[in-house]
Design goal:
Mean pLDDT of chain A: 93
Helix content of chain A: 40-55%
Number of strands of chain A: 10
Strand content of chain A: 15-25%
Strand order of the largest sheet of chain A: 1-8-3-6
Oligomer: homodimer
Shape of chain A: elongated
Distance between the termini of chain A: 50 Å
Low-confidence stretches of chain A: none
Largest sheet of chain A: 4 strands, antiparallel
Number of helices of chain A: 8
Chain lengths: ~230, ~230
Amino acid sequence: MGISKCEQCAIRQCNALKSLKSYALVGLSGCKTSLSFKKGDVLFQEGDNINGVFCIKQGACKLTKLSSNGKDQIVRLANAGELLGQRSLISNEPANLTAIAVNNMRVCFLPKQEIENGFTSDIDFSVDLLKSLAQELKLADNVIVDMAQKSVKKRLAETLLYINVNFGVDADGLLNIVLTRDDYANIVGTATESAIRILSQFKKEGLISAHGKKIKIENIEGLKCVE
Amino acid sequence: MGISKCEQCAIRQCNALKSLKSYALVGLSGCKTSLSFKKGDVLFQEGDNINGVFCIKQGACKLTKLSSNGKDQIVRLANAGELLGQRSLISNEPANLTAIAVNNMRVCFLPKQEIENGFTSDIDFSVDLLKSLAQELKLADNVIVDMAQKSVKKRLAETLLYINVNFGVDADGLLNIVLTRDDYANIVGTATESAIRILSQFKKEGLISAHGKKIKIENIEGLKCVE
DNA sequence: ACATAGGTATGATTTTGGTCATATTTAAAT
DNA sequence: ATTTAAATATGACCAAAATCATACCTATGT
């Protein structure tokens, strides 16, 4: 059971839970589970009946799906503040994606029943859920277009820029999210060797620098111009 | 103004409007606009403030997005019964996609205000909207994986199978949706010549037959096995 | 019926990206 | 600290798909 209380948790301001009335939050506090995951841990798997949502308090994860060719595609990255499993809860279906921690995470699990109470009683909450799904859908549609129309090199450049904007950099300017070359390949949908090759090229061109897995963007404008 | 009444319209059973209470339907009837579009007509464009939703009574359309390389990607096809513009309405944003009729269409336009009244008063309506967005999101995620991981040939085979299942065939077994080779290319995200070449190959292999633009699937199992 | 534009078809060639092979480096486990 | 596995790097080669070129259909309007 949770130590902290949902009413006092700042992270809920980042997602639809911000619209829950205080009595609903008290209900949540009483039945939530605080979990922690280490890098590489699986939060849930494609096909799991998750029966609730996960609120990311700290850390980030990748949402992947296994393709029929045996490769895992990373469909998107989720950051602290995001709610996972909304879609499955709403559709009343098993998870369509697998969630894997990309660094150490603290997560609250909120059981389905409690959330459902929220959205029959709180119209603002369902409106917020609608908005967040609508946003996810828009982003997904845009990814479809990028996948279909842009080169691997451009997709990889845009991925670096995306991570820079959405996850930021540390004191040394290194991207806060640390991914393997294989992860990068699975985001842009290419072979691992191709991702490695292109990142090496970006390094030679001075667009990025790499210290092991840690990447620093050296030339944002240059990356934006990659075709 | 509409001739028929929303209360008596069967097509709304196919989408979230089925959950509107009868008084809300009467309100809609009073302010809806019945439109018709011919093949190739634009219902709305990416960037338009559509200020309402479109309910497709008859016909089908393609939802496209212009990529930075100047090509139009077909993100999905929408059939009779579907509601267009839900996402924009919810996000309160301009349309992210362009809708173009692929055959003759009859469509009702339902203004935003009226729909919004529906979802503050009718919890079932917002739940249904949530479910339909959730479904769209799941499909979009699956398309991302397919785009990233499958060959052009496989994507084209799956597109034919998708159209077969979702739009059906006429008395002669020809697919009900008639698309140009260019449209097929823009669905799977390839060059027009590549789409033409692969369809020719499918013809030679006896998987399909083509009578001008009209396509008939001759060997469903064969198409399913295309890699 | 004829002209015309848009769509289909196919060949030749180039480019992009995938696969296979093999080092080398880095990180994790004992 | 040493071993081991995993991740990175790079070359060589191959396959898939894009591009360029050209020709031929087939609807459409005049």
